[in-house]
């Protein structure tokens, strides 16, 4: 079904939103709004009919955590729905703004904060294959990823995925030890930063929650690359990575 070319004015106070978020980059070009308001829901004929025409009113593109906080705060103050988006490869319409409002495009927050043996802390916008490419020269790789790895982001996988390549060996995404920590921005007038570790890091969302708050970074478990795995018995560092696969991983900074 074609999307309306001349949408009705948004019922939200977008002028006030713009004023509150200041210099956070915003996009309101209609073609981009329509494109980024979609994911792969069209695989389902039912969702394709139900979600046709759903669109954000404006897109925020945060450059850093302060921008995420500004957007979350403005949305909470003004009662505007906020929908996070990674790469939009989800196939159930999870990244579709059902009631318009603000779509927060997290793809710019892709930096690796740090890497240690068996662990990496990374921004939610990191594309998983880019992350692997950055890790592999050091002898590490993600031990599990979705089959959409070449486009999917870490944030979208954690919030909307379930498992994938590697899950036979290492379990699903929510298996203890696969996500070690998560940094969350709450959706409140005065957003809080929640730094969740261990079990809390992978168990912070609820299946009954329709949308998740935007989050800033995740610490993920790594695995030696296939080429280095064969020598893992001789390498203390790599043995540590294996033995660190306990249900309660060590705290990370
Ligand atoms: C052909 C095909 C194959 C697939 N194979 C797999 C597979 O093997 N395993 C699997 O698990 N999935 C699979 N998927 C689903 C999807 O590709 C993955 O789950 C992927 O990891 C989603 O990442 P994304 O960046 O595209 O997220 P998006 O689609 O952009 O978002 C997914 C969800 O996460 C939320 N979100 C995104 N970023 C954030 C953030 N920073 N903070 C809070 N919430 C956020 C969104 O609001 C949405 O609810 C597949 C999909 C297709 C079309």
Main sheet specs: 6 strands, antiparallel
CATH topology of the largest domain: Uridine Diphospho-n-acetylenolpyruvylglucosamine Reductase, domain 3
Q: Tell me the number of helical segments per DSSP (H or I, 4 or more residues long).
A: 10
CATH level-1 class of the largest domain: Alpha Beta
Task: Report on the architecture of this protein.
By secondary structure, the protein is an alpha+beta fold. The chain has two domains: 14-107, 2-Layer Sandwich (Uridine Diphospho-n-acetylenolpyruvylglucosamine Reductase, domain 2); 112-234, Uridine Diphospho-n-acetylenolpyruvylglucosamine Reductase, domain 3 (2-Layer Sandwich). Helices cover 28% and strands 19% of the residues. It contains ten helices and ten strands. The chain has helices at 14-21, 30-36, 45-51, 65-78, 128-135, 154-160, 167-170, 199-202, 226-229, 236-243, and strands at 26-27, 58-60, 82-85, 102-105, 112-116, 119-122, 140-142, 179-185, 193-197, 215-224. Helix 1 (14-21) runs antiparallel to helix 4. The longest helix has 14 residues, at 65-78. Flavin-adenine dinucleotide binds next to strand 3 and helix 6.
């Amino acid at each position: 079904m074609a999307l309306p070319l001349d949408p009705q004015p948004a019922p939200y106070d977008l002028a006030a939103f713009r004023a509150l978020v200041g210099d956070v980059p915003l996009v309101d070009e209609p073609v981009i709004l329509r494109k980024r308001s979609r994911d792969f829901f069209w695989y389902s004929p039912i969702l394709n009919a139900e979600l046709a025409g759903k669109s954000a009113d404006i897109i925020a593109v945060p450059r850093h955590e302060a921008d995420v906080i500004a957007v979350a705060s403005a949305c909470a103050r003004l009662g505007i729905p906020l929908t996070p988006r990674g790469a939009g490869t989800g196939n159930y319409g999870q990244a579709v703004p059902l009631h318009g409002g603000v779509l927060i495009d997290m793809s710019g927050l892709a930096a690796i904060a740090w890497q240690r043996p068996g662990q990496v802390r990374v921004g939610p916008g990191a594309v998983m294959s880019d992350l692997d490419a950055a890790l592999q020269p050091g002898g590490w790789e993600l031990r599990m990823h979705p089959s959409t790895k070449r486009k999917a982001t870490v944030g979208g996988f954690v919030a909307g995925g379930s498992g994938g390549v590697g899950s036979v060996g290492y379990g699903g995404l929510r298996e203890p030890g696969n996500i070690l920590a998560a940094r969350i921005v709450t959706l409140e007038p005065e957003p809080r930063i929640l730094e969740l570790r261990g079990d809390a890091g992978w168990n912070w969302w609820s299946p009954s929650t329709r949308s998740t708050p935007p989050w800033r970074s995740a610490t993920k478990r790594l695995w030696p690359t296939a080429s280095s795995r064969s020598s893992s018995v001789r390498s203390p560092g790599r043995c540590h990575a294996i033995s660190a696969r306990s249900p309660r991983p060590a705290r990370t900074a």
